[in-house]
C-alpha cells in the first residue's frame, strides 16, 4: 500500500528555466547550446549537485572551461536566483495529497548554495508543506545512486514498498514486460521465445538497463531471466504471487543493474 509520495524538485515542482533566462538576457542560441553541455551538463555541475565541490571552486572551473562565453556565464551566474520558477500547481498538488492521507517528501539533486538561495528568494513555496526532504548537495549523495534513496528511507523511517517517486529523469532503467501469449495451435514451435528474444534486443538497443517480468519461472529462465531478488529487486509486499521466484529480471548487459534496487509496484494488484 502506498503511503508516501516522494517528489523531485526540478521540472516537477519548479521549472528549471535556464534557456528562458538566457533568452531574457539576450544571450545567443550558441551560448545557450554551450551552457547545456559545458555548464549544466559538465562534471563541475555534477560535483556541485553532489556536494563534493564548493561553489567558488566550481565557478572558477566553469569560467576556465568557457573562456569564449565568460561574459555570458557571468551574466547568468549573477542572475542565478532566477534559474527556477515554481509551478502554479506545486503547493495545491502537495496539499491535495496530504488531505488524502499521504506523507510527502522531497528528494532532489540540487547544489547546496543554490538551493539555499532559491529557498530564500521564494522559489520553493512548498517547503513548509512537505514532511521532509533530502537534497544531494547537503548529504553528498546523488541520484541515481542507491545511497541517497536509502538516506531518505532511513532518515524518515519509511518502507520502500510504501513509497512512490515522481521524477523528471529521462534515464532509462527498467522496462516491464507485458504478458506474452501464443495460441495453443502454435505451441512448441519456438514462437514465444523468438518474440521475446526480438523484444529483448529492442529494449537493449533503446538503452534500458534491465527487463522485469512476472511469469512462468521455467520458461523465462530458459531465455536468461533470473529471480529478481538476485538483483536486489523485489515484488511489492502483499502481492499475491504463487512463487516469489516468478518475479524475474534480466540485465541488458552484465552489471547493468548493479546500482539499482527496490520494489516493483504492479498497479493491477492494488486495483484488483
Write the layout of secondary structure elements.
Elements: E1 4-7, E2 14-16, H1 18-24, H2 29-38, H3 43-50, H4 55-65, H5 70-78, E3 84-86, H6 90-99, E4 103-108, H7 112-120, E5 132-135, H8 136-139, H9 146-155, E6 163-166, E7 174-176, H10 191-205, E8 210-214, H11 217-222, E9 226-227, E10 233-235, E11 247-251, E12 262-264, H12 267-270
Parallel strand pairs: 1-4, 1-6, 4-5, 7-8, 10-12
Antiparallel strand pairs: 2-3, 8-11, 9-11
Helix pairs in contact: 3-4
- Mind telling me the CATH superfamily name of the largest domain? Gcn5-related N-acetyltransferase (GNAT)
Total helix count? 12
The total beta strand count reads 12
CATH class of the largest domain: Alpha Beta
Classify the fold: give the CATH topology of the largest domain: Aminopeptidase
What is the 3D shape? globular
Content of β-strand:
15-25%
User: What profile does the largest beta sheet have?
Assistant: 4 strands, parallel
Return the domain count. Answer: 3
- What is the ordering of alpha helices and beta strands? EEHHHHHEHEHEHHEEHEHEEEEH
Class of secondary structure makeup? alpha/beta
Q: Please tell me how large the radius of gyration is.
A: 22 Å
Provide the residue-averaged pLDDT: 87
| Order of strands in the sheet with most strands | 5-4-1-6
- End-to-end C-alpha gap: 13 Å
Low-confidence stretches: 267-272
Description:
With 272 residues, this protein is α/β, with parallel strands linked by helices. The protein has three domains: 4-13 and 88-166, HAD superfamily/HAD-like (Rossmann fold), CATH 3.40.50; 18-82; 174-270, Aminopeptidase (3-Layer(aba) Sandwich), CATH 3.40.630.30. It is 38% helix and 17% strand. It contains twelve helices and twelve strands. The protein has helices spanning 18-24, 29-38, 43-50, 55-65, 70-78, 90-99, 112-120, 136-139, 146-155, 191-205, 217-222, 267-270; strands spanning 4-7, 14-16, 84-86, 103-108, 132-135, 163-166, 174-176, 210-214, 226-227, 233-235, 247-251, 262-264. It has a four-stranded parallel beta sheet. Helix 10 (191-205) links the parallel strand 7 (174-176) and strand 8 (210-214). Helix 3 runs antiparallel to helix 4 (55-65). The longest helix is centred in the last third of the chain and has 15 residues, at 191-205. The protein is globular and about 70 Å long. The model is unreliable at 267-272 (pLDDT under 50).
Amino acid at each position: 500500500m502506498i503511503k508516501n509520495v516522494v517528489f523531485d524538485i526540478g521540472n516537477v515542482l519548479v521549472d528549471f528555466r535556464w534557456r528562458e533566462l538566457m533568452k531574457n538576457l539576450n544571450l545567443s542560441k550558441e551560448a545557450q547550446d554551450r551552457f547545456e553541455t559545458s555548464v549544466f551538463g559538465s562534471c563541475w555541475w555534477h560535483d556541485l549537485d553532489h556536494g563534493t565541490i564548493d561553489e567558488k571552486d566550481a565557478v572558477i572551473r566553469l569560467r576556465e572551461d568557457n573562456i569564449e562565453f565568460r561574459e555570458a556565464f557571468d551574466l547568468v551566474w549573477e542572475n542565478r536566483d532566477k534559474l527556477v520558477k515554481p509551478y502554479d500547481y506545486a503547493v495545491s498538488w502537495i496539499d491535495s495529497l496530504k488531505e488524502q492521507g499521504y506523507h510527502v517528501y522531497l528528494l532532489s539533486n540540487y547544489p547546496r548554495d543554490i538551493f539555499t538561495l532559491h529557498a530564500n528568494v521564494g522559489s520553493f513555496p512548498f517547503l513548509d508543506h512537505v514532511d521532509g526532504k533530502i537534497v544531494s548537495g547537503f548529504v553528498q549523495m546523488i541520484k541515481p545512486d542507491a545511497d541517497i534513496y536509502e538516506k531518505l528511507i532511513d532518515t524518515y523511517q519509511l518502507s520502500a514498498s510504501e513509497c512512490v517517486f515522481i521524477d523528471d529523469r529521462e534515464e532509462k532503467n527498467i522496462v516491464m514486460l507485458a504478458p506474452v501469449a501464443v495460441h495453443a495451435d502454435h505451441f512448441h514451435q519456438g514462437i514465444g521465445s523468438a518474440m521475446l528474444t526480438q523484444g529483448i534486443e529492442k529494449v537493449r538497443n533503446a538503452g534500458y538497463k534491465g527487463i522485469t517480468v512476472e511469469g512462468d519461472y521455467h520458461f523465462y529462465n530458459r531465455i536468461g531471466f533470473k529471480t529478481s531478488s538476485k538483483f536486489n529487486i523485489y515484488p511489492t509486499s502483499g502481492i499475491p504471487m504463487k512463487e516469489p521466484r516468478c518475479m524475474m529480471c534480466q540485465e541488458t548487459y552484465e552489471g547493468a543493474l548493479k546500482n539499482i534496487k527496490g520494489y516493483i509496484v504492479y498497479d493491477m494488484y492494488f486495483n484488483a
